[in-house]
């Protein structure tokens, strides 16, 4: 490989508890021999961090989250960038974007790009960005200002809440893009002038952090009040996770069934979900754990009897791709119940290695919960099949090798 370049990785926020898939990837690329430097658009807000974050060696710097908070830094950057040959082209692109999307966030992205360019990391020769919405806007302006090549990792919300015009422009500016579900891949591929520049790459798991769970789970069926079924749900308390659907489904179960729900995750709707739980009469059967690190979550996967996440597509198009927590739960032989949206059916085949229902269907989710609670043999069979799929097809070493190969192909071209 010739002319190996330091990769500057632009992130929306770092570190984030909800984005373990990104942290896993960053660490994997470092272990594969790539030199990284991280730049984030937002400082961390989580009070905890995962062990993987402490293992990543790449330095981290932060752009101004809001331009008015650091006006001198922003003005100095814009003044320095005005002399660059690409400034006129970048400003013209910004004006065009602003006409399509009259929003002060557009101004912020251009200002952040100027700061990134003015404070460009030493020896940075490539720009890779996670998320094709706002971070990719910053990256696209940075590319025009500097002519530094750039690439994209697109995920879920960023794809489906962006308009096609915006997506197409970014895809045609970047060297290539990877995404983590077949549905996202097909959508982006249809918008790209060069169809071959869009790649499908499932995240997978770092299986050293999710080793095989040797113990057998208790053979409980919810009929004994002394041995209730433990249902685990992990996910931020936001609309797309469908935690309200899960609560309503649990409230619809027969009173003769004995179960308890453990929820892990923070989020903006946590208090309203607690209020909903109370109004449904579930207060004494639901435990809200809040945010936890990866080791703590692993322990809960192993203590649970089944995992449930009622994912939905929201009105503005926001959705999950293939939630990492479903794959993590599956790695621990935990039977999973979810919905048949986005990339979830790309991993789970209902009745073979999990159960899936239609989104927003409380009655169907209730029936599926009842089935899994009362049938321990089914839970064991589905959990074993799901773990087998994780360990044979969702090892993150595969996705790391794919990404490394894509970077190396570009460097071999001498770009």
How would you explain this protein's 3D organization?
The protein has helices at residues 20-31, 51-55, 71-81, 87-100, 104-118, 134-146, 157-160, 164-173, 182-191, 243-251, 270-279, 294-303, 324-331, 344-347, 362-374, 376-393, 396-412, and strands at 6-11, 36-40, 60-62, 124-130, 150-154, 177-179, 198-200, 229-234, 259-264, 286-290, 306-308, 335-339, 355-357. The protein is of the alpha/beta class. The chain has a seven-stranded parallel β-sheet with strand order 3-2-1-4-5-6-7, with helices on both faces. β4 (124-130), α6 and β5 (150-154) form a beta-alpha-beta unit. The longest helix is centred in the last third of the chain and has 18 residues, at 376-393. It is elongated. The model has no long low-confidence stretch (mean pLDDT 95).
- CA radius of gyration: 23 Å
* Secondary-structure-derived class: alpha/beta
Pattern of helices and strands: EHEHEHHHEHEHHEHEEHEHEHEHEHEHHH
Share of helical residues:
40-55%
Query: How many β-strands, per DSSP?
Result: 13
Oligomer: single chain
What's the shape?
Answer: elongated
Strand content: 5-15%
Name the features:
alpha/beta; single chain; 415 residues; 7-stranded parallel sheet; elongated; 6-stranded parallel sheet
Task: Describe the structure concisely.
With about 425 residues, this protein is α/β, with parallel strands linked by helices. It has helices at about 20-30, 50-55, 70-80, 85-100, 105-120, 135-145, 155-160, 165-175, 180-190, 245-250, 270-280, 295-305, 325-330, 345, 360-375, 375-395, 395-410, and strands spanning about 5-10, 35-40, 60, 125-130, 150-155, 175-180, 200, 230-235, 260-265, 285-290, 305-310, 335-340, 355.
């Amino acid at each position: 490989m010739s002319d190996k370049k330091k990769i500057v990785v632009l992130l929306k926020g770092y570190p984030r508890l909800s984005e373990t898939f990104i942290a896993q990837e960053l660490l994997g690329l470092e272990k594969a021999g790539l030199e990284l430097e991280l730049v984030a658009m937002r400082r961390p807000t989580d009070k905890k961090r995962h062990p993987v974050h402490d293992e990543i060696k790449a330095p981290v710097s932060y752009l101004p989250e809001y331009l008015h908070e650091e006006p001198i830094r922003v003005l100095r950057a814009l003044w320095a960038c005005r002399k660059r040959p690409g400034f006129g082209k970048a400003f013209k692109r910004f004006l065009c974007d602003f006409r399509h999307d009259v929003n002060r966030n557009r101004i912020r992205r251009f200002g952040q790009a100027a700061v990134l360019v003015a404070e460009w990391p030493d020896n940075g020769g490539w720009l890779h960005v996670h998320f094709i919405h706002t971070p990719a806007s910053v990256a696209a302006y940075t590319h025009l200002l500097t002519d530094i090549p750039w690439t994209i990792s697109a995920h879920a919300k960023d794809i489906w809440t962006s308009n096609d015009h915006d997506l197409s422009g970014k895809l045609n500016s970047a060297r290539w893009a990877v995404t983590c579900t077949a549905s996202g891949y097909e959508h982006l591929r249809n918008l790209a002038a060069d169809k071959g520049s869009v790649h499908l790459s499932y995240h997978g798991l770092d299986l050293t952090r999710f080793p095989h769970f040797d113990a057998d789970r208790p053979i409980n069926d919810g009929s004994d009040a002394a041995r209730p079924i433990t249902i685990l749900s992990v996910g931020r308390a936001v609309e797309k996770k469908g935690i309200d659907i899960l609560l309503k489904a649990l409230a619809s179960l027969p009173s003769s069934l004995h179960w308890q729900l453990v929820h892990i995750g923070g989020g903006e709707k946590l208090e309203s979900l607690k209020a909903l739980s109370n109004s449904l009469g579930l207060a004494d059967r639901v435990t809200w754990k809040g945010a936890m690190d990866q080791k703590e979550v692993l322990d809960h996967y192993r203590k649970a009897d089944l995992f449930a996440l009622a994912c939905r597509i929201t009105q503005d198009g926001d959705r999950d791709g293939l939630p990492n927590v479903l794959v993590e739960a599956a790695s621990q032989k935990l039977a999973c119940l979810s919905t048949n949206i986005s990339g979830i059916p790309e991993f789970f085949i209902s009745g073979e290695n999990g159960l899936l229902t239609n989104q927003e269907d409380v009655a169907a989710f209730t029936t599926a919960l009842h089935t899994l609670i009362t049938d321990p043999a089914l839970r064991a069979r589905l959990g074993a099949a799901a773990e087998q799929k994780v360990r044979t097809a969702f090892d993150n070493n595969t996705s790391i090798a794919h990404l490394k190969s894509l970077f190396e192909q570009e460097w071999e071209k001498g770009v």
